[in-house]
Amino acid sequence: MSPSPRPLDLVVFDCDGVLVDSEGITGRVFAGMLRELGADVDEHELARLCIGRSTADSLGMAARLLGRPLPSDFAERYGERSRAALAKEVTLMPGVAAMLDALDLPCAIASNGLRMKMAITLRVTGLLERFEGRWFGIDDVERGKPFPDLYLLAAGTLRARPARCVVVEDSPTGIAAGRAAGMTVLGYAGGLPSERLLEAGAHYVFDDMAHLPALLDALRRATPVAIVPAG
User: Fold this and answer.
1) Is there a smaller number of Cβ atoms within 10 Å at the N or the C end of the chain?
2) The overall pTM is greater than 0.85
């Protein structure tokens, strides 16, 4: 007897590093500002360390790297400089446009980023209208990821059952949030190795957005899933 089909109500995407290619841009700005204060940091390593973290968490980590408190206006200046860079440079992650066109499920976005920043990246990449009323930022909840609040807010707003929701994440922080929300978590290995995402608790891992529609279809059909990165 074949397995019973499994209904899916909603796909909830993380934003940075999943839908929009923003993390390298903000990492460059962040690292540059820390170098101005005398820190010896590599922008690629800093971006890797900040994947999935809120701005507040990233600033705390930066102060530890610097060895002293950040200037009182650092967060404000970083916000201004990073938003200006994103407005000029941000693009969609590879394959996202075609993937979204191919999906036949309701979708939403839940990010640890501030709505002010999200509005810029979504508008520049053409996603703002597509996700109107269905995108949520850290300032919409009391607790950001790794707590489940953002994902539960998305599900509740769209009247979806958490057990019938799928989360697409690229960081251990986001994976923890999706698991805590009681949702199936797909790890997108666009920045971190697939092994790290699996260790963090992702149910399945993939590395090409073109694979996501088939992976979701396999989940709905309750058929074995074998879409994982080759590397």
Assistant:
1) N
2) yes
